[in-house]
Amino acid sequence: MSSYTPPVAKKVPTERIHHGDTVIDEYAWLADKEDPDTTAYLEAENDFLKQETAHLSELQEQVFQEIKGRTQETDLSVASRKGAWWYFTRTEEGKQYAVSCRVPADSDAPPEITPGQRLDREMVILDGNELAGDSAFFSVGTSSVSPDGTMLAYSTDYKGDERFTLRFKNLETGELLSDEIADIFYGGAWSADGSAFFYTRVDDAWRPYQVYRHTLGTQEDVLVYEESDERYWVGIGLTRSERYLVLGAGSKITSEVRILDASDPTGEFRIVRPRTTGVEYGVEHAGDFFYVLHNENAENFELATASLDDPGTWTPLIAHREDTRLLEIDAFSDHAVVHFRRDGLTGLRVLPYPSAGGGWRERAGAAELNAYEIDFPEPLYDVGPAGNPEFTTTRLRLAYTSMVTPPSVYDYELDTHELILLKQRPVLGGYDPADYEQFREWATAEDGTKIPISIVKRKGTAKPAPTLLYGYGSYETSIDPGFSIPRLSLLDRGFAFAVAHVRGGGEMGRHWYEDGKLTRKRNTFTDFVAAARHMKASGWSERIIARGGSAGGLLMGAVTNLAPEEFAGVVAEVPFVDALNTILDPSLPLTVIEWDEWGDPLHNPDVYAYMKSYTPYENVDGRPYPPILAITSLNDTRVLYHEPAKWIARLRATAGGGPFLLKTEMGAGHGGRSGRYDAWREEAFALSWIIERGTS
């Protein structure tokens, strides 16, 4: 590795006093995005990064070509039926973005679509490449066709700051309407007749807090709901039956739902049940009744039913189970499907309604009595409902993958219980799943808890193998066993890839999440260290490179402080490493909402002390640290760029070891660069750095 002089960030001591504790932050000035010194420093870091990694350019290009060569660039999705149309997306070789299309539904069978060939009467709904033009960044926030199939609502972002502009397109004529609404958030919902579209706006803290109704052809939109509690965010959707608009308000721990007959868009939303702190619930329309999935006195959630007239009175249907976390309920005209989690894996439970007789209570009860679960053959996998827009159907569309099985789309025939494979993502270059194998290991945490680890490697790979260990561990987000084309570039070079399913995620049920948040957050970090040590002690690994992003980037910073000696390198992507300072500032995006996840250090001295004990930026010391690659984006609104910038500056000034590298995308957001070829090059860059760290 070449030895260039790294940038040295100037120190401008800024004093902060909270709960009697005085802290000096020398790099707080980096939070000023408009300061020329900030831009100059970030650009100097990018220049240093290029110099330090210039010797990896050949390997980067090789890995990029491997990713590109294994990917069928001209491809398409499986068509989904909605009303009179089959909808699908195309990707074309050489183009960065997908193209959304549809064809008339002449029969119940999906059309036979060939990559690269157009169908008769095929209509392009939205061409991302045409919309993106020469923009360095492009993203679609919503793309929603009206219930009658005649209008498209879509929103675009050209900066990466997740502020979208909403437009409308007449799909019958191709005309773009003059209606244009700036600064909206993701998502939205149509009224039943397609005359009105509901959307959300965010406040200065980037919290979606308002729902507006836009009537096509008018200029004055109507505010239909505003959430004043800064802990709550709002969203709006249309039920699969297209009977109800559902307006949800939720904090990290509490839900409140309002519903409105979708045929009456100017009517008043009615509340299902007023918010009760700690109670989360969601409502799904099932024809002549509602399903309600809730956690009232049910940590892993319970499924209940309710009448259309009295949706706030809930009758239990599937009782709470300690070993099964109910995730979601999808209702159809003749059946329902429960998505659940058990033993660290996802599953599907089908509730078929009887063909005739009885009221809705009897039918729902009979459906549960006759319920069954769909079996899958692999020991590790991930499955869930996918692309089921039709309310009346005899098939269930599902998505399936594992660490060796590429993403696959199936139709499950409810009458025959047959699984019909519609498409498996092509992996070019002779990929054979039989050449790879996946395993489940269990590490023992400091408190004796068993931590699952999912592992994949190529058959014949010698142990111990260089290992990329991935972790997240926040928001009850589960990192389930899944497939990755870029990962093959590691496995084929003798690496093992592992996921540590640490507490704070949801892999083992709601308690897994509760045991890794607030004042139990340290479990997330010690679980990951325990997983790394288990991988070494059990003979799997010798050199471990850790990787995580966003809240998983906080995990990377924390474990590097806890046990720097365990890691040969660390990749932290858009890392939440200045957590204490961020959560102390309610003016920053999403801070108040996050208090239910991390605690409120601004008003609670105990939370302040606890967070200060683990937040990465506050705990850098002079020990030798492993090489660290931090990747961020200037326009990220979720984890602001200055967090990793400050962290790297402090590491370089305080810690031994390294080197410590910072890569800032100067025109992207939280998800990095938007085009698929650009994203592949970014991944090839990270993987080349990982390969060197694992083999040097």
UniProtKB/TrEMBL annotation:
<dbReference type="InterPro" id="IPR001375">
    <property type="entry name" value="Peptidase_S9_cat"/>
</dbReference>
<dbReference type="InterPro" id="IPR023302">
    <property type="entry name" value="Pept_S9A_N"/>
</dbReference>
<keyword id="KW-0720">Serine protease</keyword>
<dbReference type="InterPro" id="IPR051543">
    <property type="entry name" value="Serine_Peptidase_S9A"/>
</dbReference>
<keyword id="KW-0378">Hydrolase</keyword>
<feature type="domain" description="Peptidase S9 prolyl oligopeptidase catalytic">
    <location>
        <begin position="483"/>
        <end position="691"/>
    </location>
</feature>
<dbReference type="Pfam" id="PF02897">
    <property type="entry name" value="Peptidase_S9_N"/>
</dbReference>
<comment type="similarity">
    <text>Belongs to the peptidase S9A family.</text>
</comment>
<dbReference type="Pfam" id="PF00326">
    <property type="entry name" value="Peptidase_S9"/>
</dbReference>
<feature type="domain" description="Peptidase S9A N-terminal">
    <location>
        <begin position="6"/>
        <end position="425"/>
    </location>
</feature>
<dbReference type="InterPro" id="IPR029058">
    <property type="entry name" value="AB_hydrolase_fold"/>
</dbReference>
<dbReference type="InterPro" id="IPR002470">
    <property type="entry name" value="Peptidase_S9A"/>
</dbReference>
<protein>
    <submittedName>
        <fullName>S9 family peptidase</fullName>
    </submittedName>
</protein>
<keyword id="KW-0645">Protease</keyword>
